[in-house]
Fold:
Amino acid sequence: MLPIRVKLAYGGVFISCCLVLFASFITAKAYKTTTNDALTLAKVENRIALDLNHLNLPDDFLKHSGSKDMVLNYIARLNAQLADSGVMVYSIEGISDYPARADLITKQLHAPQKSLTVSFVVASSLFSKDDIAVLILVCLFAAAFTYLLFISERTKIQIAKHEPEVAVQAEEKPKLIVDLQNKTLAASCAVDKTVALANKPLCFYLALVEFCIEHPDVVLNQNKDVPEELLTLANKYFYRLVELGHTIRKRPNFTNSLEKTLSEIRAALDEVWQEQPEIKETYYPPKAHGEGSRSRLHHYGLKAIEIADIEVIGK
Structure:
């Protein structure tokens, strides 16, 4: 059901369309009628001027009374020929058989040795019965235009309604959830499926994520020492585990057995993203390529990870 204001808006569009189109038609019709009437008057004036010598008109100068019946018959014959033109000869030299009226158009005809006055009546109706059909067609066209406009607007509204859904779907991209209280990893799309991770790989992985987000251009190579800032972050997460009450005997050495630590992290991530392996690449520390596990070209940093890709509980 459309709201009342929307119905009124489309009703206004329909009425405006009808008025504009029909007014344009009436204006064009009036212009054409005026032009045709002027042409018809000119033709009639010319005809009367040619027939002037054959009319028995009164002449005061010659004291000739003329023949009124002849003039009336001539007017009747002219009007019979002008029946469909909208122009009627009313009188010639004041001789007429029609009732008096005020809407006369009077013309002064000049002929050799003679001048006379001719009065005409021109039909001035702007609307006729035939125009009803035009009005119906205009209304149908306006209704079709309004309906197409309504369909177009409804389509735009439907598209606009679906756009937020697309945005929500984009926001619902699965991310990694790390719970420091339980020392587990899980995907946001399957929070019930958790994977436990030991203290050392857990702290090192969180430090690695934070370090790579803050320093995306730094290359982490196993042939080189682990950056001090990365070690500081790893120790920070270790002390946080202590604060959360986990039983920990001593602080691990994060520089020792780096490949083993990375392997444990990869194994946990393999299990977390088992159902969605295409997402794993964002979180997965790359394995070494080339000869040996400590290739000089190897970079175990996370190149594509962003802060929105991970959520740390208990941080």
